[in-house]
Amino acid sequence: MPASENPWTQPPDLEVVACEPHQERFDRVTRTLSRALQVPAAVMTLGHRDHQWCSSMLGTHGPADLQDLSFCSHVVAQGRAVAVSDTSADEEFADFPLVLGKTVIRACVGVPILLAPGMVAGSLCAMDSMPRCFGDDEVAALRDLARMAETELQAAAQAGLRNSLLTWIGLAQRQVAIDPATGCSTIRCLRALLDGVVEQAREGHLQMALCLLHVDFHRAAVQLADKAGDRSLFLKLARLMHHRLPAEAAMARLGDCDFCALLLAPTAASLDYALEPVVQPQLSAVLDDGAVLHGHVSSHVMRLADVGEAATGNLFWARTLSAFAPVHGIADRGARPH
């Protein structure tokens, strides 16, 4: 299918997953589909730009390049469930290679595989050698199996993000830019690496957010700790805030009670899920003497998608800070000249 005719939203780079030999996790999906719908053939495809690869194929004999499996391309292009009860009688499918070839397909049903709403990653299709109508329950079973495949793909995407960000954090640690006592980086380190992370998110069609956080404790307790030169409260606070993060995220410490978290995720929904524990308003710290200090966390989240496609790291940071700093008096300690 020419790129100009393909309306689907481009997903993150799936070529590495798609070009691997058939994987058991996807073969399990097509085997289950074949049994559930009692069909002799089941196919799972993954898409990369304007091309598709076979990720799992059961009961058909064809190349990994799915130019011959035009029905799968049709499901991807439509972005919805497609069912054909008799391909030989349907003008749109009657001349498809698998309808006319040695492997005769007379009925087929397929659903798109999504990484996020509107982001089609491929298709899951069931095919029969006899004309038949696929009922609502059968289409529902097909959708359930597609969701299983989506979960596997999202997990792979999340693992890729985690590896990239852990590499990012490892570099910062080697540059002595992360405090080993708290796990938080310096704001200058975060700012220095932000442009590269923004570019990575844009190229990989990833979701990204900066989250500014301010913790309010009882003023007397903070003043007492400051006066006594006791840094244990602030170190404990930094560790508590850092522990809220998923593995594929990083946090910089702006001040004793101010933090900035950087989060990446493959989809908007998974980004929202990762943000939930980070922005929880209640926080309790157990001091060395056993006393419990309760605090309140104020937060502001700025998503890269809200800043615009052409956003740079500098612009992303400036927009985030401008919405939060006037309220809490946070200075741009990591400012760089434009």
Number of domains: 2
N-to-C order of helices and strands: HHEEHEHEEHEHEHHEEHEEHH
Overall geometry: elongated
What is the topology, as strand order, of the major beta sheet?
6-8-9-7-11-10
Spatial extent as radius of gyration = 26 Å
Explained architecture:
The protein is of the alpha+beta class. It has two domains: about 5-155, Beta-Lactamase (2-Layer Sandwich); about 175-330, Alpha-Beta Plaits, CATH 3.30.70.270. About 40% of the residues lie in helices and about 25% in strands. It has eleven helices and eleven strands. It has helices spanning about 15-20, 25-35, 70-80, 95-100, 135-175, 185-205, 220-230, 230-240, 270-280, 305, 315-330; strands spanning about 40-50, 50-60, 80-85, 105-115, 120-130, 185, 205-215, 250-255, 260-265, 280-285, 290-305. Strands 6-8-9-7-11-10 form a six-stranded mixed β-sheet. The protein has a five-stranded antiparallel β-sheet with strand order 2-1-5-4-3, with helices on both faces. Strand 8 and strand 9 form a beta hairpin. Residues about 1-20, about 60-70 and about 330-338 have low confidence and may be disordered.
